[in-house]
Amino acid sequence: MAFQISGIIQHIGNTESIPYQDKVFKKRELVLDCSYRNQFTGQIERANYPKFEFTGNHVDDLNDFNMGDIVTVSFSLNGSRSEKDGQVRYFTNVQGYKIEKYQSRYNQQQGGNQTAQAANGNQPTPTQGACQSAQQAAMESARNAAAPAAPNFPPAVDENGNPIQGNNDDLPF
Q1: Is 0.90 surpassed by the pTM of this model?
Q2: Where does the record place Low complexity bias (predicted)?
Q3: Which of 9, 79, 149, 170 is most deeply packed, by most CB within 10 A?
């Protein structure tokens, strides 16, 4: 089963070459910042820094990205069991197999790119499962947008339905 998550690149490791039988096994680590942030203050409410392992031909996929880029990583969970000295241990590996620049579903449907939408102050909400760091950027954009106009309510009236002139409505506020 495949999963996806979006976040900000925090670390891209160097390629490691590990001899295995008569071949060389290559792997490289990637760490994302997918922390949950308060939408009003931007403060981290729950830290989340998943580490992914890219192997084989997918190692070179990380060459096109830099720290600070907002990306979406497709990954799978692989588990293994080990028994040594009567002790059974289980291991889980988070195996990344695809990485791409972050785009929301709205952005993909419109055929545009996120940068153009952000310039228009029209940044979409991230898709389900996307990192709240990307959501924070959308909230920041919304905060900087102009406030909507106040609703146009009808004037206050007296008991006969006549408009009240001035501030004689007997309301305490």
Answers
A1: no
A2: 107-123, 134-150
A3: 9
Q: What is the pLDDT along the chain (173 residues), one digit of tens a residue?
A: 689 999 999 999 999 999 988 889 999 999 999 999 888 988 999 999 999 999 999 999 999 999 999 999 999 999 999 999 999 999 999 999 999 998 866 565 555 444 433 333 333 333 334 454 455 555 555 555 555 555 666 666 777 777 777 666 566 65
